[in-house]
Design brief:
The protein is built from 8 helices and 13 strands. The chain is α/β, with parallel strands linked by helices. The chain folds into 2 domains: 141 residues, HUPs (Rossmann fold), CATH 3.40.50; 119 residues, Rossmann fold (3-Layer(aba) Sandwich). The strands form 2 sheets. The protein has an 8-stranded mixed beta sheet with strand order 6-5-4-7-3-1-2-8. The protein has a 5-stranded parallel beta sheet with strand order 10-9-11-12-13. Strand 1, helix 1 and strand 2 form a beta-alpha-beta unit. The radius of gyration is 22 Å and the shape is elongated. It starts with a strand and ends with a helix.
């Protein structure tokens, strides 16, 4: 079985980690390098088809993100194969693919027999990377064609500063509970606790909170040393964003809240006075 890794030029730690974690390092691997990265999928789809005809592979693995999702789907159609996006794990010999559904509330195992199988990977926390390196393999350069006529312009952002949440060792995640507590009060508590503050999507959508601090499947995926989840029920979409935390403290007035099943320590109480007390203790 041959597996082709489609990556951009330069670092590819995420795919290297994924290959190691899924026991594929001993498989017949080759790397197709997108160099430079295309502005749109149309610039590389035909080139990828040609590359596959020259060096056919049973499984093609694309990186996480919108471009990887699009390329995996559209290339599979052109090659009359199978496609799955945002894959978590792969048992290559058996053709078993694991991925989440319904906002990460359900993990499904799918048996895919169509070949070639084109998959893109799910996003993972930047801090959860173990720093694996790709094994030695044959490499082929995929050079994008010219931009299509319908694309008038494209803006390339070369360097994006990492959000403070991604680098924080301690994070306070506040859900919809106690909607009367504003962002300023929460920010003060976070500062006193030495924690970066994030919010559930429900709280942000309710208004008055920074949309760049959404935690969960549609926001930041974090891996802090300590995560305090306050006033959140523990919905799967939110908890997907903190599942790599080393230690989770949950505070909720509902003793039956699902968040407690995913916490190392649970406190059944109104989260505001609990955090005030914790902040006071931190300042002692």
């Amino acid at each position: 079985m041959k597996i082709a890794l489609i990556t951009q030029c330069g670092e590819c730690t995420a795919i290297a980690n994924w290959i190691a974690e899924n026991g594929l390092s001993t498989a017949e691997l080759e790397r197709w390098i997108l160099d430079p990265l295309p502005d749109v999928a149309e610039q590389v789809l035909d080139v990828l088809v040609v590359q596959w005809s020259l060096t056919p592979a049973d499984i093609l693995i694309f990186p996480a993100g919108p471009l990887g999702d699009e390329l995996a789907t559209r290339l599979a159609l052109r090659l009359h194969g199978g496609s799955l996006c945002q894959v978590q794990t792969l048992e290559a010999l058996e053709g078993l693919v694991n991925k989440s559904h319904w906002g990460n509330a359900l993990k499904a195992t799918l048996h895919v027999t169509a070949r070639p199988l084109c998959i893109s990977l799910t996003r993972e926390s930047e801090l959860s990377a173990s720093g694996s390196n790709l094994p030695a393999m044959a490499e082929y350069r995929i050079v994008p064609t010219a931009r299509p006529d319908w694309l008038e312009s494209a803006e390339s952002i070369e360097c994006v500063t990492a959000h403070p949440l991604l680098q924080a060792g301690c994070v306070l995640v506040v859900g919809l509970g106690r909607s009367d507590v504003g962002a300023d009060k929460i920010a003060v508590l976070g500062q006193a606790l030495g924690a970066e503050v994030g919010y559930s999507r429900a709280r942000v959508m309710n208004g008055g909170f920074d949309a760049e601090r959404v935690i969960g499947i549609s926001g930041h995926l974090l891996a802090p040393d300590i995560c305090i989840v306050a006033g959140a029920s523990g919905a799967a979409a939110l908890m997907a964003g903190v599942r790599h935390s080393r230690f989770v403290v949950a505070i909720n007035s509902d003793a039956g809240a699902p968040v407690f099943s995913q916490a190392d320590v649970g406190i059944v109480d109104d989260w505001l006075p609990v955090l005030v007390a914790l902040a006071a203790s931190a300042g002692v």
